[in-house]
Amino acid sequence: MEAATAAATQLGSGSIEYSAQELSVEDTIMVHYTPPREFFREESGLFYCGGYNGWDGEETPVMVPLLRQRDGRYKASITIPNFAKTLDFTVTDGIRYDMGPDDAFYHIRVTHIREEDDAGNIRLYRQDEDGTLTYEGMIETFDPQELERMIDEGIDKVAENIKVETLSTEEQQAVQVMRAEASILGEKLGLGNMQVSEARDAFDFFDDETTGELQVEHLGLVLDRMGLTLDADEIAGLLERHTYATRPEATTVRLSEYMHMWSELDQADTGIDII
């Protein structure tokens, strides 16, 4: 679909708001949209339709339905993939397209981005409004076993330190590093960028305290949210292979263990419902 071409004769400009001032890759944000008055048909459903890093409507878009609220605005939950520097999108009912200010798509800048260097290390940058990048640090590439050990140590440290509802700056940084390292592990296990983001989103949904661990009994809920249909014996098998094998008395599932489970299911391609 060529959104830019389809919108050429029927343009509008509403307004957007989103739920964070500084966005980071792998964040999930809530985008609120106010449509231009009398632009869309009253009964029509609206969709977020876009891409990343200068998307111009030529490539196949990401389509997310917008939910209407009582105040007349619409909202959608959008997960930022780990390669994104900008979110670029239009809003459409399938016939008309709101292309945003100056008819040039809506744009949301990602403040904290990542780039991979020639050695495979992940460099962290802050992206300013004018596109200027400021180096913030680096996540080095490790062999899988060493990386997993570091992830587990990081999770243990964060879980031990989180005693109150509000995290300190140091703890917030530890959580961000943990999330980045978990994504690298997922990719090393053969998962694609979008798969890793979707897996993290599902895990985080039930990780209320952002500890990087879930109660064992919540594993089935996470898998179900990912669209995976597994019975009790299959879930028990995953726990036996990826959790109890190294932690026989465990009552929680760690993020690194969950990534291994998701990789196994992806490679086996079993029990997956397309929803």
UniProtKB/TrEMBL annotation:
InterPro entries cross-referenced by the UniProt entry: EF-hand-dom_pair
Domain of life: Eukaryota
Protein name in UniProt: EF-hand domain-containing protein
Protein species of origin: Tribonema minus
Species classification: Eukaryota, Sar, Stramenopiles, Ochrophyta, PX clade
